[in-house]
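L-threonylcarbamoyladenylate synthase
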Amino acid sequence: MATLYEIHPETPQVRKIEEVVDALHKGAVMLYPTDTVYAIGCDITVKGAIERVRQIKRLSNDKPLTFLCPSLSNIAAYATVTDSAYRIIKRLIPGPYTFLLPATKLVPKLVMDPKRKTTGIRVPDNRVCLDLLDALGNPIISTSAPLPSDFKHLGFIGKAELFDEVEKLVDVIIDTGEEPGYQVSTILDLTDNEPAIIREGLGAELVANAI
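Predicted structure tokens:
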């Protein structure tokens, strides 16, 4: 049974953030809200936790995982960022955007695209996520939680139903009192000279002005 943490969305309680971070350091997998959808995540440095995330989402090892970073300077540690990519990312973060970039050696093989050697990185516009990242000191895996389409037998589900469905799969659930969002991030491929939108999601209409 997962431990539930009720955390204020704008002024997260430091003690609760520290308790969640302690659990993540020990290998916990959590369900948590982002600025797009609820996500399943863990500390990027804990291999066993990453493997559990893959099992929960039924992802094979050739399917890359996205992770959250707190800033552009932190992104540069985990990905090769060209001058043009830097300018684009700087205009769009924080926000609902996933940037595909060439991975550095700091990105675990279990996370990156094994063929392209790329990785997907986000800087979320979400206070709880940013406080967790700051306290943890490592990126956090962020893959969308099972959406209502995965629970067709339930029809439309809200936060309570999502928690009920996932609580046996994860160790920690963060509740900010808000209902889950169902619009995913916009994915922007910055691995080539010409940036390309791979998936249109939240904020897609702003990308044209940034690239």
